[in-house]
């Protein structure tokens, strides 16, 4: 009961906050390719490549490349670390006026469990972020002037289950995912809400080592104390994995 009341109070607080802020609307698509290359029973190399667009595939908003390495502690827990390169393009609400970059170092902890027949995945990520600073140098002319540093913590909870068995014995999967991100402007002080990403997806196994996911997402980003961006997203994700331990 206490948990229910806590969620209710959080909902009321967010609703009250939204009533006092400006929410800008974006519509976009996130097209993602993920790979997992199993090197041994413990080690894997991972990679995620993502193109983000606005105006439904018409304008490029961002390009993300995220390689990493993963180590399996046991059947339920793994840890990982890696690098992320984020390219910003001047499209969409509250976009940068010029193309800029962000480089990140990240570490994660992933915990897998089950609720009945459904699979539960929890992911904790800690990021060190190096972002290009954009300055105005003259009328309508901008330039990169140095790099700023900040940190962020992310928590994602994801549940996946079988929705429908087809006549060819293939399965339609269902997945719900939500990730909240908290930013830190100086060290680990001054924590502040950064963004929330929700997704509802359907999945289909194309081959033994490949799946495709598609569905709806909602990206909610805090620009400043009074301005937010709400982005309705078409998600399409293709995963392709290789087990290099098999001959």
Could you write a compact summary of the structure shown?
The chain is mostly beta strands.
Oligomer: single chain
What is the tally of helical segments? 1
**SS class:** mainly beta
How far is the first residue's CA from the last residue's CA? 54 Å
Beta percentage is over 45%
How much helix, percentage-wise, in residues? under 10%
CATH fold-type name: Porin
Mean pLDDT: 88
The succession of helices and strands, N to C, reads HEEEEEEEEEEE
Strand order of the largest sheet: 1-2-3-4-5-6-7-8-9-10-11
Description:
By secondary structure, the chain is mainly beta. It has a single domain, classed as Porin (Beta Barrel). 7% of the residues lie in helices and 74% in strands. Strands 1-2-3-4-5-6-7-8-9-10-11 form an 11-stranded mixed barrel. Strand 9 and strand 10 form a beta hairpin. It starts with a helix and ends with a strand.
List the helices and strands and how they pair.
Blueprint: H1 2-19, E1 22-38, E2 43-54, E3 59-72, E4 77-88, E5 100-115, E6 118-138, E7 141-165, E8 171-186, E9 189-207, E10 210-224, E11 227-243
Parallel strand pairs: 1-11
Antiparallel strand pairs: 1-2, 2-3, 3-4, 4-5, 5-6, 6-7, 7-8, 8-9, 9-10, 10-11
